[in-house]
């Protein structure tokens, strides 16, 4: 299904409608029957925390959502997104194709959050289903004079970018290898107005990107390295913010094959960082944010075959640093390191990398947030955290003490590519830090990037995590 959203001046007579309110008294302005109002009053007297009421009206639906004002503004917004996902199920069940959204509590951000939840929950990846369902479009009408048509269009374009990111993560490697990913980047650049260039293997060899080339040695498909750029004339920042996304389109673990075997089932998602960067650049360019942003995406699969790297190999990175390979399943950091080293040519004011990098991050905080660390200022970290709270893509900041550096010492090279079992997410970040001089943030999205069971407006599969986080961070801190 698809969801279209527009601004409306008023609620049509006899239409389905969803109201947001803070108190029963505000419902006097709503198009509800006296019986419905009495029902809500009685229920609220019995349970003051009751916050969702849905009424069937013979093919139409009326719903009332109460804000939890004891929660923070951002917590309330997330509750409404999740309620929006629940209400979408009801609207689909009743085959309702139009609904009006109205806020009686005088807080327009609540209405936009509700709409966002409905829209995000409507995502489907069904291109390989042979049984095609009838096309179904839900029309959302936002009734609020404090919300502009521009804000509604902005939301629509950001959700569209999230869907692009989800599509990329959900696509199998049989139809999305590194070269195909590069083609999609070029297509997105044409469609949304940013610049893009895709380096082939020969150019990557000329750049001496030893990490990317080493990981690619076991594959029959060549690697790519993509550069995405959005530089509007009115950009607020002279030096760019560089976004780096891990693009391992499938990860077998290489010679250190992943175990147990079932852990391979979701490894098409190991390019979730690349998908986030593509989605973020798409959203930024589509909404013409006045920010100078560059995206870097090293891409390859990590296979067993050919001349695949093995433990004990020593490789030379783009920076000239030598690395002793201790585990071929620690490949993401190798390709990211080359990209981080390459980013120095832009003299960036900030670098942020996103990667489904470690199982340690998943074990630490699960799918409920992203593990973060790095060398940027506390002000930058706080701004990124606020953006994460705003869209409920929350960050858990891990320590970055020098003590962890010792785990990467090698007797035969400048460093090893992996530390011990302890603090694996941190030592992975420590590895990356050796290849970057600019202020830098590392986001390990291994937990929230791909879900094996539905979570409210995030369905099974790719979630598009990172797109909304980066968009709102750059919009609020630079634009």
TrEMBL record:
PANTHER family, per the entry: CYTOSOL AMINOPEPTIDASE, LEUCINE AMINOPEPTIDASE-RELATED
The keyword Hydrolase belongs to this UniProt entry's keyword annotation: yes
Cytosol aminopeptidase domain boundaries: 327-334
Chief place where the protein resides: cytoplasm
Active site residues according to the UniProt entry: 258, 333
Role according to the record: Presumably involved in the processing and regular turnover of intracellular proteins. Catalyzes the removal of unsubstituted N-terminal amino acids from various peptides.
PROSITE patterns (alphabetical): CYTOSOL_AP (PS00631)
E.C. no: 3.4.11.1, 3.4.11.10
Name the UniProt record assigns to this protein: Probable cytosol aminopeptidase
Binding-site positions, Mn(2+) 1: 251, 329, 331
Subcellular location: Cytoplasm
Gene3D superfamilies named among the record's database cross-references: Leucine Aminopeptidase, subunit E, domain 1, Zn peptidases
Cofactor: Mn(2+)
Chain positions recorded as Mn(2+) 2 binding sites: 246, 251, 270, 331
Gene Ontology CC entries for this record: cytoplasm
Family that this chain belongs to: Belongs to the peptidase M17 family.
Keywords, sorted A to Z: Aminopeptidase, Cytoplasm, Hydrolase, Manganese, Metal-binding, Protease
EC top class named in words: hydrolase
CDD domains associated with the record: Peptidase_M17
Keyword Nucleotide-binding: no
Species of provenance: Xiashengella succiniciproducens
Catalytic activity: Release of an N-terminal amino acid, Xaa-|-Yaa-, in which Xaa is preferably Leu, but may be other amino acids including Pro although not Arg or Lys, and Yaa may be Pro. Amino acid amides and methyl esters are also readily hydrolyzed, but rates on arylamides are exceedingly low; Release of an N-terminal amino acid, preferentially leucine, but not glutamic or aspartic acids
GO biological process entries: proteolysis
Cofactor remark: Binds 2 manganese ions per subunit.
């Amino acid at each position: 299904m698809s969801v279209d959203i527009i601004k409306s001046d008023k609620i049509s007579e006899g239409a389905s409608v969803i109201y947001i309110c803070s108190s029963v008294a505000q419902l006097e302005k709503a198009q509800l029957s006296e019986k419905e109002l009495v029902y809500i009053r009685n229920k609220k007297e019995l349970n003051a925390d009751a916050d969702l009421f849905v009424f069937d009206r013979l093919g139409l639906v009326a719903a009332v959502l109460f804000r939890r004002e004891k929660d923070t503004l951002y917590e309330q917004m997330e509750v409404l997104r999740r309620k929006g996902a629940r209400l979408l199920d009801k609207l689909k069940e009743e085959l309702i194709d139009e609904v009006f959204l109205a806020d009686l509590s005088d807080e327009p951000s609540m209405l936009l959050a509700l709409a966002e939840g409905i829209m995000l929950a409507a995502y489907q990846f069904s291109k390989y289903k042979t049984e095609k369902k009838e096309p179904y479009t839900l029309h959302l009408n936002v009734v609020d004079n404090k919300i502009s048509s521009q804000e509604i269009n902005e939301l629509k374009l950001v959700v569209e970018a999230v869907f692009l990111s989800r599509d990329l993560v959900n696509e199998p490697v049989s139809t999305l290898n590194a070269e195909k990913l590069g083609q999609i980047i070029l297509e997105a650049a044409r469609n949304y107005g940013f610049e893009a260039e895709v380096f082939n293997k020969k150019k990557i060899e000329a750049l001496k990107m030893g990490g990317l080339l080493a990981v690619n040695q076991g594959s029959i498909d060549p690697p790519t390295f993509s550069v995405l750029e959005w530089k509007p004339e009115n950009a607020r920042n002279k030096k760019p913010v560089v976004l780096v996304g891990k693009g391992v389109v499938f990860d077998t673990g290489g010679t250190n094959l992943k175990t147990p075997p079932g852990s391979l089932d979701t490894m098409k998602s190991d390019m979730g960082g690349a998908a986030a960067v593509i989605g973020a650049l798409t959203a930024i360019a589509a909404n013409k944010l006045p920010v100078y942003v560059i995206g870097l995406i090293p891409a390859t699969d990590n296979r067993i075959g050919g001349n695949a790297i093995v433990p004990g190999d020593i490789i030379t990175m783009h920076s000239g640093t030598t690395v002793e390979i201790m585990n071929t399943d620690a490949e993401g950091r190798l390709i990211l390191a080359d990209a981080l080293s390459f980013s120095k040519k832009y003299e960036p004011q900030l670098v942020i990398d996103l990667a489904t990098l470690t199982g340690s991050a998943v074990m630490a905080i699960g799918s409920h947030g992203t593990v973060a660390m790095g060398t940027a200022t506390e002000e930058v970290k706080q701004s990124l955290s606020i953006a994460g709270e705003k869209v409920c893509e929350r960050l858990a900041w891990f320590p970055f003490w020098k003590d962890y550096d010792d785990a990467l010492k090698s007797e035969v090279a400048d460093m090893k590519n992996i530390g011990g079992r302890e603090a694996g997410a941190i030592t992975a970040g420590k590895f990356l830090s050796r290849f970057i001089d600019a202020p830098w943030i590392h986001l390990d999205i291994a937990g929230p990037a791909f879900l094996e069971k539905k979570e409210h407006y995030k369905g099974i599969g790719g979630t598009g995590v990172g797109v909304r986080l980066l968009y709102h961070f750059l919009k609020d801190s630079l634009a």
